[in-house]
Amino acid sequence: MKTIEFDSEFSETVLNFLIRNYSKVLSKRWNSGKNTVAVFVHEEYVKRTGSDQTITIVFEPSGVIRRSRITVIGSGGGKGIMSMDWGSESAAEDTLIKRIKEITSSRY
After folding, report:
1. What is the predicted pLDDT for the residue at 8?
2. Angstrom distance (rounded) from CA 22 to CA 31
3. pLDDT at residue 81 in the model
4. Potential cystine with 38: which of 33, 57, 59, 79 (Cβ 3.0-4.6 Å)?
5. What distances in angstroms separate CA 92 from CA 9, 32, 61, 66, 99, one per listed residue?
6. What's the number of CA atoms in the CB half-sphere (13 Å) around residue 47?
7. 40 neighbors 56 (Cβ within 8 angstroms)
8. Whole-angstrom Cα distance, residue 15 to residue 3?
9. pLDDT 10s digit of each residue in the chain, 108 long?
10. How many other β-carbons are positioned within 10 Å of the β-carbon of residue 76?
């Protein structure tokens, strides 16, 4: 599990990216005033483990004014040979965190 926080001015851009790229299984979004909470579940086949794995993303306010947070959880990648994920879950989390950093980097 990995977490990243960013300025909320990028929230809509990040949410649109997640909707386009990480909503294969589930995409739910709740708005309450200026706050948005969203959950995305994405499934992908990983060749190195020979199995499907899921990436669950929780988008929420960070608790700090004008900040948002994403928590990324990779799971299910260990159903291949010897039930090991061979680092595929962590790699999927890292890939998404890296992309979110790129999307929100204009202020960093």
Report:
1. 93
2. 19
3. 55
4. 59
5. 25, 30, 23, 27, 11
6. 0
7. yes
8. 15
9. 999 999 999 999 999 999 999 998 999 999 988 899 999 999 988 776 677 788 999 999 988 889 999 999 988 765 645 555 556 677 889 999 999 999 998 644
10. 17
Q: How far apart are CA 55 and CA 66, in angstroms?
A: 26
- Alpha carbons within 13 angstroms on the beta-carbon side of residue 75 total 6
What pLDDT score does 108 carry?
41
Domains along the sequence of the chain with CATH: 2-107 (3.30.530)
End-to-end, the C-alpha distance of the chain in Å comes to 23
Find where tokens 């960013």 sit: 6
Quick one: which of 86, 18, 19 has its CA closest to 47?
Answer: 86
Q: Which two tokens stand for residue 99?
A: 């992309």
**Stated pTM of the model:** 0.85
- Specify the amino acid at residue 56: T
